[in-house]
């Protein structure tokens, strides 16, 4: 009888979000990319049932959460949104001006990189903050929803 050794699995231990202009240490939560294919169905002549094949690829938005510095010095997300607004208002350049590549990196407990995703052509779809609550001692969290073209 052959003995099977337990398999090591990825743990949600350490990760980094690398975006030009952002302090990676402030990110506390994120998502890995999700890929989905559209379903294309067609009925060939004489067939009793539809034939199904994979259609276009779709990439779902991701949401990143990060802490906000108390001194107000971290304006990275708001600056990124301002660039997008300028482009859309016609006072900036082309969309390439605000599209960025984002790296999502996973580390093991020893700090060695185990996996990396690069999201290409990313831009801010939504920027939001925690609700205001008097008397709360929680840190303020900035939530950034990112739309992107594709990942590798």
Defining key terms:
152 residues, mainly beta, Pnp Oxidase, Chain A, 7-stranded antiparallel beta sheet, two-stranded antiparallel sheet
N-to-C span: 41 Å
* Helix percentage range: under 10%
- CATH T-level topology: Pnp Oxidase, Chain A
Secondary structure tally: strands: 9
Succession of helices and strands: EEEEEHEEEE
Low-confidence stretches: none
Query: Proportion of β residues?
Result: 35-45%
Largest sheet: 7 strands, antiparallel
Q: Structural class of the secondary structure composition?
A: mainly beta
Shape: extended
Tell me the CATH architecture: Roll
Q: Give Rg in angstroms.
A: 21 Å
What is the count of structural domains?
1
- Return the CATH class: Mainly Beta
Number of helical elements = 1
Molecular structure report:
Helix content is 9%, strand content 43%. It has one helix at residues 76-88, and strands at 14-18, 27-29, 35-42, 51-59, 62-67, 100-107, 113-129, 141-147, 150-151. The strands form two sheets. Strands 1, 2, 5, 6, 7, 8 and 9 form a seven-stranded antiparallel sheet that branches. Strands 3-4 form a two-stranded antiparallel ribbon.
How do the helices and strands line up, and which of them pair or pack?
Layout: E1 14-18, E2 27-29, E3 35-42, E4 51-59, E5 62-67, H1 76-88, E6 100-107, E7 113-129, E8 141-147, E9 150-151
Antiparallel strand pairs: 1-6, 2-5, 3-4, 5-8, 6-7, 7-8, 7-9
How do you describe this structure in short?
This protein is mainly beta. Helices cover 9% and strands 43% of the residues. It has one helix at residues 76-88; strands at residues 14-18, 27-29, 35-42, 51-59, 62-67, 100-107, 113-129, 141-147, 150-151.
């Amino acid at each position: 009888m052959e003995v099977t050794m337990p398999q090591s699995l990825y743990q949600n231990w350490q990760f980094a979000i690398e975006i030009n202009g952002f302090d990676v240490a402030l990110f506390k939560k994120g998502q890995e990319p999700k890929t989905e294919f559209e379903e294309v169905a067609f009925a060939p002549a004489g067939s009793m049932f539809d034939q199904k094949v994979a259609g276009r690829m779709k990439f779902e938005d991701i949401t990143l959460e990060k802490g906000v510095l108390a001194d107000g010095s971290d304006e990275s997300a708001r600056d990124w949104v301002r660039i997008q607004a300028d482009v859309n208002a016609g006072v900036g350049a082309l969309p390439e001006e605000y599209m960025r590549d984002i790296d999502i990196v996973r580390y093991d407990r020893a700090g060695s990189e185990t996996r990396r995703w690069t999201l290409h052509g990313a831009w801010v779809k939504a920027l939001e903050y925690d609700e205001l609550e008097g008397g709360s001692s929680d840190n303020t969290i900035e939530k950034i929803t990112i739309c992107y073209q594709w990942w590798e």
